[in-house]
Amino acid sequence: MALSNSYETPAPGFNFDNAARNAALEGLFDGGQTPKPLKTGTTIAGVVFKDGVVLGADTRATSSEVVADKMCAKIHFISPNIYCCGAGTAADTEKTTDLLSSNLTIFSLNSGRNPRVVMAVNILQDMLYRYHGQIGANLILGGVDCTGNHLYTVGPYGSVNKVPYLSMGSGDLAALGILEDGFKPDLELEPAKELVRAAIHAGIMSDLGSGSNIDICVITKQGVDYIRPYQESQYKHNRTMKYKYGPGTTPVLTEKVVPLKLEVVQETVQQMETA
Amino acid sequence: IGLRSQLKDSVPVAGFCPQGAYGVQDSLRSGFTSVKNDLIPSHPLELSEKNFQLNQDKMNFSTLRNIQGLHAPLKLQMEYRAARQIQRLPFLQSSNLALDTLRNSDECIGFEDILSDPAQSEVMGEPHMMVEYKLGLL
């Protein structure tokens, strides 16, 4: 099908043709019932300890007041030594971290080196600033590279902070309280994991947008330990009955059989090699 | 063509700066004008995204000029202009390999490589009209 009224092929990338239509539609629904994007309404936290970085996240994804996903993965893989927790609009964090991971893979294939955390942060910062906050992604990047253990946060408008411990998402205030109380520089592995777990747990208990299980990701120079789930929710619902229906549940009212008339058009015989 | 003259300083709005010949609204191709079309706002990113590549190039070239002198951007722009001419006919998708290599976008992946990729578009422009438009005969 040929478009007869365009002189140039449409530009690649984002397409803003529907912006005017959406603005008009919003005026039609009094009370704004346009579909809400899937937000992660999250608690994510990260702590730098002696040998590396511990990242933690809850696993609930909400779509306004409904829990859309009880077991979503918020800790995304960026490169073998860098992982990223994402809060905000779920699709935005997914796609942005995927693009970042692809870019860093291309870089490490070209140069033969493991990417550094600052590179990931710079790429993210440029990308998010270019879109002036329209991409709703609050990210915590943690990783270990040749220069040490790093923990950064990147906001949706491109702001960057380098900190030893932090939390983001709707449950960040509750988690930050626990982190502020329990953080010490140069923690050991087990106390660090326990601190992050307690912080996410506080977020889950105190915030409606966070819930379900806790995922923990430990990144050290030796490798990555992605524990999913680290702690299961105590309110897990066990299905009490099976929802499969046996054959015969639905009564058959009528049955009509129409045989397909097939005629042989062409017949070819190919001998098989049975030697 | 200088970079400044290529910058689009407005999203085309029906009624103002119509694109027909002699500055009159081209009813045959773009339809009738409508005041309502002018009042509905466009997306805040539309303009900055349209000009993004051009603005980046401008910034990079002016930095290069300040550091290395006028010859550096001149030579690079000559290469850009040569690379930009290696194209298929307008209704077919060109790979732009030379241009990508110059811009270093063959080693980066961004939203423009994933979303609405022109190589995978479902509709195609009318070949005769697009060639005539490109040659300025329309």
Keywords:
heterodimer; A: alpha+beta; five-stranded antiparallel sheet; 13 strands; 26% strand; extended; B: mainly alpha; 50% helix
Describe the fold and architecture.
The complex is a heterodimer of chains A (275) and B (138). With 275 residues, chain A is an alpha+beta fold. Chain A is built from five helices and 13 strands. Chain A has helices spanning 19-28, 90-111, 117-130, 172-182, 189-206; strands spanning 2-3, 44-49, 52-58, 61-63, 66-69, 75-79, 82-88, 137-145, 148-154, 160-162, 165-168, 214-220, 224-231. In chain A, a hairpin with a 2-residue loop joins β8 (137-145) and β9. In chain A, α2 packs across α3 (117-130) and α4 runs antiparallel to α5. Chain B is an all-alpha fold. Chain B has a domain at 48-135. Chain B has nine helices and one strand. The longest helix of chain B has 17 residues, at 52-68. Chain B starts with a helix and ends with a helix. The model of chain B is unreliable at 13-18 (pLDDT under 50). Classes of the chains: A alpha+beta (275), B mainly alpha (138). Chains A and B meet through β1, α1 and α2 of A and α4, α8, β1 and α9 of B. Chain A: It catalyses: Cleavage of peptide bonds with very broad specificity.
Q: How many helical elements of chain B? A: 9
First-to-last CA distance of chain B: 21 Å
Q: Which runs of chain B of at least 5 residues are low in confidence (pLDDT < 50)?
A: 13-18
Q: Identify the overall geometry of chain A.
A: extended
| Secondary structure: number of strands of chain A | 13
CATH class descriptor of chain A? Alpha Beta
Strand content of chain A: 25-35%
SSE order of chain B, as H and E? HHHHHHHHEH
Major β-sheet profile of chain B: none
| Strand neighbour order, sheet with most strands of chain A | 11-2-3-12-13
InterPro entries (chain B): Ump1
Keywords (chain B): Chaperone
Pfam family, one (chain B): UMP1
Protein name (chain B): Proteasome maturation protein
